[in-house]
Amino acid sequence: MTWTEITDDAALTALLGVPTDAARDKERSALTDVDRDWLASSPFCMVATADAQGRCDVSPKGDPAGRLVHVLDDTTLAIAERPGNRRADGYRNILANPQVGLNFLIPGRGDTLRINGRARLVSEAPFFDAMVVKDHRPLLAVIVDIETVFFHCAKALLRAQLWRPETWDPEARVPRRAVLSQRLERPDDSLEDLDAYYGPSYEERLYR
Q1: pLDDT, tens digit, for every residue of 135-171?
Q2: Domain Pyridoxamine 5'-phosphate oxidase N-terminal spans what residues (predicted)?
């Protein structure tokens, strides 16, 4: 079958149509009280970045609700860095290109809160004391100067049935994390050692 590629805005609009006035005009430039409530209730977000050449990365961030985001004012927020694999792909992108896109989820909700803006990295600030989780004070925070904020409708998550446990089958086709790690990342480690690494102690080490 021949592919038909869309190469300009006019062709895209002809195919998809134009947004409603409500969808077109829903962007805001500052947080409202309900945005703050959403951020305080969200334990998870995705952070999209791109390097100087436009190569993209999307990184998940998670903390207990109320600790994921520290709101500095109506146009500024901070997200803490927690112990991880130290690749720092998104952070290196921010150093080259400060534009970021954030999508905040609340478990059980289909709608999401999207925030776009410019980011910078801070290694120390007085508000770090308010971002401590399980005695872990962040070494780094991403500061986002908000340019646009708006709610995104629930259609994508409803189609995915994301919050319906009866649809979940996490190992139906994809093996458990230890098997993936041995196959793709750590072939010299035994499956027994990897199962132990990704076992209960893995969660216990989250903030170490």
Answers
A1: 999 999 999 999 999 999 999 999 999 999 999 998 8
A2: 32-153
Cα(130)–Cα(133) distance, rounded to whole angstroms?
9
DSSP labels, 144-161: EEEEEEEEE-SHHHHHHT
User: For 2, what's the count of Cα atoms within 13 Å in the CB-facing half-sphere?
Assistant: 1
DSSP class of residue 51 equals -
The 10s digit of each residue's pLDDT in 28-78 is: 999 999 999 999 999 999 999 999 999 999 999 999 999 999 999 999 999
143, 158, 165: which is closest to 76 by C-alpha?
A: 143
Cα(151)–Cα(148) distance, integer angstroms:
10
What gap in Å lies between CA 155 and CA 6, rounded to an integer?
Answer: 24
Q: What is the spatial distance between Cα 102 and Cα 100, in angstroms, rounded to a whole number?
A: 7
- Amino acid at residue number 176: R
Single-letter code of the amino acid located at 172: A
